[in-house]
Amino acid sequence: MHNRLHYISQGNTVEEQLYNIHKALDNGCDWIQLRFKKNYSDDAFILAEAVKMLCKEYLATFIINDNVHLAKQLDADGVHLGLSDMKVEEARVLLGKTKIIGGTANTFDEVLQRTAENCDYIGLGPYQFTTTKQNLSPILGLEGYRSIIKQMKTKNIQIPIYAIGGITLENVESLMETGIYGIAVSGLITQTENPFQLINQLNDNLYGTI
Fold it and tell me: Tens digit of pLDDT for each residue in 75-90?
């Protein structure tokens, strides 16, 4: 069973990344997706190695964004792949059947594609505007999630769906009511001055609707 709350890391340097990830872990976040713009630099290996050790210490799931080879090299728990990244089938061959492979989607057709590719979960978004990611796909809003989840139920598709993109604490309850499985957040946790309270409130909202 996957965690319902995913933290996607932020930071322009190894030090910033480690600070933000440690803050998330220390305050109750059990799933870290390492997203580092310098994904193929020497810094990425140093950072990923340190994050793996942190996640092991906190018994947290460690996912690497995009870089399948780095995930294999460090024996991470898995990867998250965008639509323009390595194909899921290729990643599965490299990583093996036991690793987690998540995929990005923006439309129902892309959900069908990801399902056919045997992703373990889908990051569906964006929910609303976010400055975290450039070249943003069309915004879904609540109606977008309702529509896609309804179509999934019609086709009996049961893959876990995570909402992503500009989500705030106030959005979580209404998002969960659409039928999604969980949320992935970045700036929300990175920028909060009270991470313990925020993460606890997020988890209350995410797990309280089960």
Answer: 999 999 999 999 999 9
